[in-house]
Amino acid sequence: QVCAQLCRRPCYCPWVPPRCPRGSPLVLDGCGCCKICARRLGEPCDFLHVCDQSQGLVCDYSSASAGTGATCNFEDDEEGCEVNGRVYREGEVFQPSCKIQCQCLDGGFNCIPLCQEDVRLPTPDCPYPRRVEIPGKCCPEWICEAQDARAAPGAVSPLLRFPCQEWGTEWSACSATCGEGFATRVSNQNRYCRLETQRRLCMVRPCPALPAAFPA
């Protein structure tokens, strides 16, 4: 009897269906007559204004006795969370973007980054590292440039607004006792007056030739 009172026959629906917010699909109303926007988690609902069943939502009348009206909730009071208009079930893992991964927990969500947040310091073989977005790849990557892209060749760095007092440690001992090795030091003797680890080749003495019985 209630259904017969609410549903009119024949159906009279608007020519243009409503425009729904993101995450709310077009569905038939409770009478199976006109297309409406499905109600989302926590939104008011009734017999005509149905909840989004594709997200596992039902019209919960348990709070109607308190005078607040029925709202869309998970069946069997299952908790979930809503992100960007989409509802995820408790414990469900999802990726809002390729850079982060999240999990729905206790009505909220916890996320972890999928891209490394490492820091690359300048080195002699890569004095100007820069992180850039690569087409077709989600995470940015480090690239090495021959010179700082922000400064023209021979230009004075805009960061240096004071005379640079040169400072540096002594060169370390050669890394090899014989043959070619390298020595290191920390110095600010560069065009940007910033501390960096520098290396240079060194050789204390040539290594003795191995006997013929012991080929290299």
UniProtKB/TrEMBL annotation:
<dbReference type="GO" id="GO:0008201">
    <property type="term" value="F:heparin binding"/>
</dbReference>
<dbReference type="InterPro" id="IPR009030">
    <property type="entry name" value="Growth_fac_rcpt_cys_sf"/>
</dbReference>
<dbReference type="InterPro" id="IPR050941">
    <property type="entry name" value="CCN"/>
</dbReference>
<comment type="similarity">
    <text>Belongs to the CCN family.</text>
</comment>
<dbReference type="InterPro" id="IPR017891">
    <property type="entry name" value="Insulin_GF-bd_Cys-rich_CS"/>
</dbReference>
<keyword id="KW-0964">Secreted</keyword>
<dbReference type="GO" id="GO:0007155">
    <property type="term" value="P:cell adhesion"/>
</dbReference>
<dbReference type="InterPro" id="IPR043973">
    <property type="entry name" value="TSP1_CCN"/>
</dbReference>
<keyword id="KW-1015">Disulfide bond</keyword>
<dbReference type="GO" id="GO:0005178">
    <property type="term" value="F:integrin binding"/>
</dbReference>
<keyword id="KW-0732">Signal</keyword>
<dbReference type="GO" id="GO:0005615">
    <property type="term" value="C:extracellular space"/>
</dbReference>
<dbReference type="GO" id="GO:0045597">
    <property type="term" value="P:positive regulation of cell differentiation"/>
</dbReference>
<protein>
    <recommendedName>
        <fullName>CCN family member 5</fullName>
    </recommendedName>
</protein>
<dbReference type="GO" id="GO:0031012">
    <property type="term" value="C:extracellular matrix"/>
</dbReference>
<dbReference type="GO" id="GO:0005634">
    <property type="term" value="C:nucleus"/>
</dbReference>
<dbReference type="Pfam" id="PF00219">
    <property type="entry name" value="IGFBP"/>
</dbReference>
<dbReference type="InterPro" id="IPR036383">
    <property type="entry name" value="TSP1_rpt_sf"/>
</dbReference>
<dbReference type="InterPro" id="IPR000867">
    <property type="entry name" value="IGFBP-like"/>
</dbReference>
<dbReference type="InterPro" id="IPR001007">
    <property type="entry name" value="VWF_dom"/>
</dbReference>
<feature type="domain" description="IGFBP N-terminal">
    <location>
        <begin position="1"/>
        <end position="75"/>
    </location>
</feature>
<dbReference type="GO" id="GO:0007165">
    <property type="term" value="P:signal transduction"/>
</dbReference>
<dbReference type="InterPro" id="IPR000884">
    <property type="entry name" value="TSP1_rpt"/>
</dbReference>
<dbReference type="Pfam" id="PF00093">
    <property type="entry name" value="VWC"/>
</dbReference>
<feature type="domain" description="VWFC">
    <location>
        <begin position="79"/>
        <end position="145"/>
    </location>
</feature>
<keyword id="KW-0130">Cell adhesion</keyword>
<dbReference type="Pfam" id="PF19035">
    <property type="entry name" value="TSP1_CCN"/>
</dbReference>
<comment type="function">
    <text>May play an important role in modulating bone turnover. Promotes the adhesion of osteoblast cells and inhibits the binding of fibrinogen to integrin receptors. In addition, inhibits osteocalcin production.</text>
</comment>
